[in-house]
From TrEMBL:
Keywords, sorted A to Z: DNA replication, DNA-directed DNA polymerase, Nucleotidyltransferase, Transferase
Alphabetized PANTHER family for the sequence: DNA POLYMERASE III SUBUNIT DELTA
Single GO MF annotation: DNA-directed DNA polymerase activity
One cellular component term from this protein's GO annotations in UniProt: DNA polymerase III complex
UniProt source species: Streptomonospora alba
Catalysed reaction equations from the record: DNA(n) + a 2'-deoxyribonucleoside 5'-triphosphate = DNA(n+1) + diphosphate
Enzyme class: transferase
Pfam family, one: DNA_pol3_delta
EC number: 2.7.7.7
Organism domain of life: Bacteria
DNA polymerase III delta N-terminal domain segment(s): 12-104
One GO biological process term: DNA-templated DNA replication
Protein name (database record): DNA polymerase III subunit delta
Taxonomic placement: Bacteria, Bacillati, Actinomycetota, Actinomycetes, Streptosporangiales
Length: 322
């Protein structure tokens, strides 16, 4: 919030519970900054009755301020929604009313009435795009007065997944346990449990031609016990993606290319960036390298670690040949 003054009427709109909880917490904190002993009523629809609502929102005889939070307002019964609508038209000066609404058409009349009454709106939509989740991660570090590199943010997203609560917890851990700017190596240290994610980090650095970084990631993966077959599988997937993007069929849609590359559509932008500088001959050579490495780590060779290191060097060098 821009100021420490809490609005008399607020609507918190969206399906992302973490963001909604934070918005409510900001409103309550602003109210307590003005009046530390403010009384807070945080109610779910099952707890709301006509009598309870009247008790919580009636003017106080002693002038004490109250914050009344109505969660899941879209699930209020028709009669209760009508009572709340009446409150919006005749608000009490000592009551800060907060409606938390999931958005959508259910209970939309109540939300529209609150907006019409001049409610301060907090948008808490669930992020649907990878870039939005990456911005959330960067924002978490910014809130803590820290920074995270772009590749580290992507590695964290790959390792933890899309749930914002999980991502927020992971960001808090990294802020607490590290110093300075957080890089991909720090993320790998704390999120090594996802073998496929660390394998992808090796593959990404290799196809981008970042040999020192790819070797560092590889050695870390092997040190923490990531199965060599998983690492080579990630390499194979990255090279297969290059083959799809490097010579796409004329008129092919991104969704079709993503399906062939076996990646979610939102990763097409990253894949196209990785494919820059790759010639068809280099892609063909890389495909041969991963096929040979697959045989070596499954019994044809004596040292899977050496086979993987050789594969990473061959792939990164193929990308760097002009």
């Amino acid at each position: 919030m821009a100021s420490t003054s809490a609005p008399l009427l607020s609507v918190v709109v969206g399906e992302e519970e973490l963001l909604a909880d934070r918005a409510v917490a900001e409103i309550v904190a602003a109210a307590r900054a003005q009046e530390p002993d403010v009384d807070v009523h945080d109610l779910m629809p099952a707890q709301v009755t006509s009598g309870k609502l009247a008790e919580a929102t009636s003017p106080s005889l002693f002038g004490e301020r109250r914050v009344v939070v109505l969660r899941s307002a879209q699930d209020l019964t028709k009669d209760l929604a009508t009572e709340v609508t009446n409150l919006l038209q005749n608000p009490a000066d000592d009551v800060l009313l907060v409606l938390v609404h999931a958005g959508g058409n259910k209970g939309k009349a109540l939300l529209d009435a609150a907006v019409k009454a001049g409610a301060h709106r907090f948008n808490c939509a669930k992020p649907t795009k990878a870039n939005e989740r990456l911005q959330f991660i960067k924002g978490e570090f910014s809130r803590a007065g820290r920074q995270i590199t772009g590749d580290a943010a992507q590695a964290l997203l790959d390792a933890v997944g899309n749930d914002l609560r999980d991502l927020a917890a992971a960001c808090t851990q990294l802020v607490s346990d590290t110093d300075g700017r957080v890089d991909a190596a720090a993320v790998a240290r704390y999120h090594s449990g996802k073998a496929e994610a660390t394998g992808f980090a090796v593959a990404d650095r290799a196809v981008e031609g970042q040999l020192p970084e790819a070797l560092e990631q590889l050695r870390w993966c092997l040190a923490i016990g990531t199965a060599p077959v998983l690492i080579n599988s990630a390499l194979a997937g990255a090279v297969r993606g290059l083959a799809v993007v490097a010579q796409p069929e004329r008129g092919a849609a991104d969704a079709d290319l993503a399906k062939r590359a076996k990646i979610p559509p939102w990763k097409m932008k990253t894949l196209r960036q990785q494919a820059r500088g790759w010639s068809p001959q280099a892609v063909t050579h890389a495909m041969g390298v991963v096929a040979e490495t697959d045989a070596l780590i499954k019994g044809a060779g004596r040292d899977p670690a050496y086979a993987l290191e050789r594969a990473v060097i061959e792939i990164a060098n193929a990308r760097n040949q002009r």
